[in-house]
Amino acid sequence: MDYKKLKFETRQIHAGLNAQEPTGSRGVAIYPTSAYRFKDCEYAANLFELSEAGNIYTRLQNPTTTNYEERIAALYGGVAAVATSSGMSAIVTALTCLASEGENIVASPLLYGGTYNLFRCTLRRLGIEIRIAPTTDPADFARLIDDKTRAVYAESMGNPTCEVPDIEKLGEIAHKAGVPLVIDNTFGAAGYLCNPFDWGADIIVDSATKWINGHGTAMGGIIVDGGTFDWGNGKFPNIDGPSEGYHGLNLYKAFGNMAFAVKCRVDGLRDLGTCPSPFDTYLMMIGLETLSLRVRHEVESTRRLAEYLRDHKAVKTVSYVGFEEHPSHKNAAKYFRFDGCGPVLNVELVGDVDTTAKFVESLELAAHMTMIGDSITVVTHPASTTHKQLSEADMAKAGVTPTLLRISPGLENIEDIIADFEQAFAKALK
Ligand SMILES: *Cc1c(COP(=O)(O)O)cnc(C)c1O
Fold first, then answer.
1. Angle formed at CA 27 by CA 25 and CA 189, multiple of 5 degrees
2. Spatial separation of the C-alpha atoms in residues 317 and 148, rounded to whole Å
3. Is residue 380 lining ligand 1, measured as CB closer than 6 Å?
4. Pocket of ligand 1 contains residue 163 by CB under 6 Å
5. Atom in ligand 1 nearest the alpha carbon of residue 88
6. Which protein residue has the closest C-alpha to ligand 1 atom 1?
7. 112 within ligand 1 shell (Cβ under 6 A)
8. Which terminus has fewer CB within 10 Å in the chain: N or C?
């Protein structure tokens, strides 16, 4: 089946299903197995030297996960996908397959906190330098690129500020330097809201924990290979060159435009062990079947909530990418569906850290957690949770003010959430 001819909503249900499945089962089976019997020694040897495709060990592949990877690749229009155990493991696996000690990656300053720490601490300790651009102006990225650069990295919509970089320009800059553009597309919802492959990205990473799963029930990540990058330009001897782990096999010559995905699997998953559980990839498959419906509802709810909060006397500021005054509204409208109206908003309440904590504690429906893309509406108060250890000055540097809240509307009827906010405001401001 050529999935490219089908619309997103159809692909999210049909891609990765096997109509010829011998049991007639409508859905995919969960294979809770760590290993697979080899029919003979020659077959086993072929699998190990990558001359034949097949199952060896669940750290490398699993039939349930393979179905899910096919669905993801079809949704993005990529050549292959590799599922991992979390969004963070997708990022680590992809980036360590691109850059080695002494090389660097040029990254956007608008990054998820976990990614920021990975870049600033752990990858640096491993000898991979991450050069964070001072702003999202593509010229600032270009200035940091040198002959040791192996990728340009950005989030399609930054967590939590919802700022959107000029993805197309970043692609041009990366390609001019002979390196791939890697986009964390968690906010792009598996390509439904934004597909960075349409704008020059070569590799996508995505935290499947968020909108792909959609119900807050499992951790996961994915790496998608767009199949567009020329690995034969001399900068990637790990991909176009003798592979130490495979008796000198050249992955680019053997696997062509899928070489990067193969690299992430046969070196990345094999050596780092960042594989997902088949139970979790099954949940991701189920989540994907309703992704477009859920995300559309959440985008509409986010707008309704933003409009309600903008006019509320208990609210000081509303930062919502769907409003024209948001600094990234133009880029969001260009790169994201629904005129750039994202699924998350940030607000600052009037009052102080204590009244804000009181508001959060008074919510009865909305959950006080650190999560986005859940079916439950989530409200996060960074000043009393993730950023509590920081001084007020450091908090300000991180863009966190005492009354800031990040809100990710869920699947409830938003009028019930608004009523919940009303009663919590009344208690907090009493
Ligand atoms: C949550 C998140 C991650 C990390 O994903 P996990 O699944 O939590 O490991 C990475 N990038 C972005 C933009 C995220 O929101």
1. 165
2. 42
3. no
4. no
5. 9
6. 207
7. yes
8. C
Question: Residue type for 73, please?
Answer: A
pLDDT one digit per residue (tens) for the chain, 430 residues: 788 899 999 999 999 998 788 899 999 999 999 999 999 999 999 999 999 999 999 999 999 999 999 999 999 999 999 999 999 999 999 999 999 999 999 999 988 989 999 999 999 999 999 999 999 999 999 999 999 999 999 999 998 889 999 999 999 999 999 999 999 999 999 999 999 999 999 999 999 999 999 999 999 999 999 999 999 999 999 999 999 888 899 999 999 999 999 999 999 999 999 999 999 999 999 999 999 999 999 999 999 999 999 999 999 999 999 999 999 999 999 999 999 999 999 999 999 999 999 999 999 999 999 999 999 999 999 888 877 777 787 777 777 899 999 999 999 999 999 999 999 999 998 8
Instruction: Read off the tokens for 37.
Output: 């019997």
Tokens of 385: 């949770």
Using CA atoms, how far apart are residues 84 and 142, in angstroms rounded to an integer?
A: 30
Q: Which residue has the tokens 């950023």?
A: 387
Q: Which atom of ligand 1 is nearest to the CA of 158?
A: 13
CB distance 189 to ligand 1 below 6 Å: no
> In sequence order, which residues have a C-beta less than 8 Å from that of residue 200 and are 6 or more positions away?
167, 168, 170, 171, 172, 174, 175, 181
Report whether 82 contacts 93 (CB < 8 A).
yes
- Which ligand 1 atom is at minimum distance from the Cα of 89? 9
CB 222 within 8 A of CB 90: yes
Q: How far apart are the first and last CA of the chain?
A: 61
Q: How many A from CA of 50 to the centre of ligand 1?
A: 31
CA of 25 to the centre of ligand 1 (A): 33
